[in-house]
User: Fold these one by one.
Assistant:
Number 1:
Amino acid sequence: MRYLVTGGAGFVGSHTVLALLDAGHEVVVLDNLSTGHIQAVPKSVEFHHVDLLDKTAIANVIANRAWDGVFHFAALSQVAESMRKPLKYFYHNYLTAFNLIQTCIENNINKLVFSSTAALFGGENRVDPISETDLIQPGSPYGESKYMIERILYWADRIYHLHSACLRYFNAAGADHLGRAGEDHRPETHLIPLTIDSALGRRPTLKLFGTDYPTRDGSCIRDYVHVSDLANAHLRAIDQINDRSVVYNVGNGQGYSNLEVIESVERVSGQKVSWEPAPRRQGDPAVLVADSTALQKDTGWMTNFGSIDKIVETALLWREKHPQGYI
C-alpha cells in the first residue's frame, strides 16, 4: 500500500511512519517542519517540505498518483497556548485540515485517519473512563478546533464518501523501543520528558501545575498510551474504513496522576526528581481516562507497553541517548 502521512516528522506521526514501514508499506511524508524534525523521517521515505496552508503544494504531491489512504497528524497541539491564542488554533488547525480533505476528495482518495484528541471531553461533569458516546464539551480552543475537523469529516463521508477514522487519543508518551524515534518538542511541554530531564539534571526544578485537584493525591490524572501502541492503533483503524467511518478513543484505560509519574521516573531512573507546585493551567481537566473498548472489540488492538514504568523506560532510553533531541 502507498500512504500519505502529514506531520510525519512529528512525535506520533514519525512513530506511525515506522509502523507503516515495518508492515511493508510505502510512505510519503508531508511536513512543514515547524515542530517536526527531518531527522525523524527515515531516509528511505519520500519527504516533501509542504505547509498544508498551501493547497496548491498539497495538490502537487497528491495529484496523478494512486493512494491507499492518508494519515493526518499535522496540527498545533498545545492546550495552554490555545487558551492564549485561540484564533491561531482555529485558523491553522481548521484550514490545514480543510485543504487536505478537499484535496483528497478532488483526487478520489477515500480513506483518511485523523489524529483527534481527548481534549474534546473537557467538561467537568463527565464520568471516567470516557467512551466515544460521552458528551463532547471541549475545554480549550485546541480541543474545539479538533472537533470542528471531525465535523468536516462527518459531512465529507455523508456527501463525498470519504471514509474516516477519528482517533481521540489521550496522552501519547514513550519512544520507539528500538531507539529509532522519540519525543523532541521545542519547547517541551509534556510531563514525562520534562520529569526525565529533571531527574537527569538537565533542567531546573520541575513545576507541577495544580496540586489541589479533586483526585487521590491532588494532581491531575491522565491516561498515558505508548506512542508505538498508538501508531499500531492507526494501522488497525484504517482497515476498518473500507466502507464506513469510525470514531475511537485510544488510551491505556488506566490513569496515572502527575505525582505517580514522578514516582515512576524516580523508580526507573534511580534518581530523585526535584519539583515544586505551580498554579493550575487553564483548560486542564482534573481527570482524563479512556475507554478503548470499541477499538479493542473492532480491531483486536491491545497495548504492548501498558504500565507507566514501561512507558517511562523507553522514554528514558531515548533521552539518555539523545540529550539534545534530534540535533
Note: The first helix runs from residue 11 to 22.
Number 2:
Amino acid sequence: MTPPVPTKPLDLELRAAHPADEPAVLRLMRASLGWRDEDPNEEFFRWKHYDNAFGVSPAWVAVHRGSVVGYRTFLRWRFLDDAGREVRAVRAVDTATDPAYQGQGIFRRLTLRGVAELTLAGDGLVFNTPNDQSRPGYLKMGWSLARRLPVGVLPAKPRSLAPMIASRVPADLWSQVTSAGLDAGEALADGAVAAALLEHAPTKGFRTHRTPEYMAWRTSFAPLHYRLLLASPHDPAEGGLVFRLRRRGYAVEAAVVEQLVPDRRTGIALVRRMLTMTGADYAIGLRSGPSAGLLPLPGQGPLLTTRPLAASPPSPRDWTLTLGDVELF
C-alpha cells in the first residue's frame, strides 16, 4: 500500500538504485507508464539497462517511508569524436513517479542528482530526444537544443505517399514480423560478420563507437525483430542494412537502423530491395549519418538536446547519428 503523500519534498530519501530495488522499480514503471501484460516490457527494460554493451545503466530512486516512489535512469553510451577519441556519454531515458506523488518535484530532483554524480564520475555529456511535453523541463535543468535531426524517407510506390502523409502519429514500439533478410541478432552475434560490416561504419563526425559487441547487443532483443539485409549473401564485406518494420497509423514503415555499405549505389539498391521484399509503404532513417536512397523530409526529425557533464558537447553540425542511435530508447 502506498504511504501517505509527504507535504514536503524533504521527506524523500534520494539515493542510487540497488539491485534489490528492481521489483519495486518494475512495479512503479508498470503503474505509472501503463505497461500492458501482453508486452515484454520487463525483458526490454533489462535488455536496455543490464545487457547494454556500453555498461549497466546508472539509476537513482526516491524513497518515502520504505517505498520506492520515483525512479530515474541514464543509458550508458560511447561516442567517437572527429579525431577518433572515445567520449563517455549517457542518454536520459526511463523515469517514473508514483501517481500519488506527482507534483513533488521528484523527476527534477532525481535528474539533477544523477547529473551531479555522473559529472563527478567523469562522464562527458548527456543527450536525448525528449518529446514536446518533457522538453521544457529538460531545458530548465540546463539542457540545450542542439539541432533537429534530419529525417529521410523513400516511398515504395507513388501510391504509398497517401498512407505515409496520413500517418502523422507516433510509430508503434513493437515491430512487425518479416522474413526478409536474416535475423540480425543471430547474424551479428558472429563477430566476423559484424567486423566486416563495420569496415563501412562512419569515420567522421561525432558518432557512436560501433564495435562487434555493440552491434550484437543492439540487435539482440528478439521481440523487436531486427533484420539484416546483405548486399551479397556470401560476403558481408560487401555491405548490409539493419532494419525493422513498425506500424505508424495506417502505414507500415521500414526503419533503417544502420546502413553499412561501401558506396551510395549499394545503399540505394539495398533500400529499394528491402521495400520490395517487405511490402512496407516506405523507408525512413536519419540523414545525418549514412543515408543512401533516402530523400529529405524537411522539418520532421526529432529535436536532439544535450547537456555538458565533464566535457562539452560537440558542435551541432558535428553529430553523425543514425536511427539506431536515437530510436527506441
Note: The mean pLDDT is 93.
Number 3:
Amino acid sequence: MNKKKIALVMGGYTGESVVSLKSAAVVAQHLDKERYEVFPIHVYQDSCYHLEANGNKTPVDFNDFSVTLVGKRVKFDGVFNIIHGSPGEDGKLVGYFDMLGIPYTTCDALTSSITMNKAYTKKIVEGIADLHVAKSAQLFENKAGLAEELLDELSLPIFVKPNNGGSSIGMSKAKSAEELTMALDLAFKEDDQVMVEEFVSGREFSIGIYKSNGKITVLPSTEIISSKEFFDFEAKYKPGVSEEITPGRLDERDVEKVRKIAEKVYQTLNCKGAVRMDYFLEMQTGDFYFIEINTVPGQTETSLISQQVKAVGMTLKDFYTELIEEMWH
C-alpha cells in the first residue's frame, strides 16, 4: 500500500507554540504508521523547516510547500495542522494551503479567522435555538472613564478578555469599577481589540465535535471544576488546578440538547476537522451559554478532546485516521 505523505505542522508565532509541540508529539505517536508517512514541519516567524530525528533541519520551499530530503523532493498529500494560535488557527496558513491546493485537517481560512475573533463568533451563533450568549461589548480602544461607561450597560462581575488571544492570557474577572480599569489595561496589552462580557454563574463544560465520512460526530462533554475563579492559563496547563470529569454530569435531556446545539454550531460556523466548544450551564435557569470555540484544540494525552475520544471507547489512532481521511472526503 502506498503510504500517504502527511506534513505534521507545529509551532507557531505565539506563546502557545509550546503546547503545539506537545500536541504534535502525541499526534505523531498515535498516527497509523501503516497508512501514513509523517513529516514533522516546524513553523516559526523566522524559520520553517522539516526536523529529522537526528536534529537535522531542512528548510521548506514556500513555492510549493515541499522539502528536499536526501536529494529527493517530497510533496505532501495533506497537512495535519496542530498549530494553536497564529498562523495555524487564525486562517493565515490554511489560506496558503488553499492557494496550493493542499488539503488539511482543520477549518478553512474564513472560519479560522472569524472564530479567532470572539465577538464576531458570538454574533454568528446568537440565533441558534437553545443557545444563549452573555451580554457583551467589543472595545477598540482604551480610554479614561471607559470602566464607568461600560458599567452603564453591563452588570458586575465582568469578564475581560483579549479578543483574539488563545490560552486565556490577559484575561481577568472584575468585581468592581477599579478592578475593571485594571483588567482593561491588562487586556489591551495583549490585543488592540478587547471583549467584555457579563459573568454567567454556571457550571463549565467543553465539548468536542468533528466530521468523519461527511457526518458530524459530537463527543461527550467534559465538565471543568476549577479551584481558580475561571479556567485560566494556569488552570488549563498546570496539573491539579482544575478537575475534569468526562463525561460531565448532565442528565439525558441536557446531553441530547447540547448535542443538537453543538452540531448546529459546527454547521453554522462551517467547521471542519475537530473543534472544541466551551459552554456554561447556568445555575438558576438551566440555560446553555456559549463561551467560545477552538478550531485547533489541544491534542495532548490529557487534553479534553483526547479524554472525550477515549470516553467513547475509541483509540486516538482511529480518531486521527478519521480526521485525516476526511480531508479527501
Note: The first strand starts at residue 4 and ends at 11.
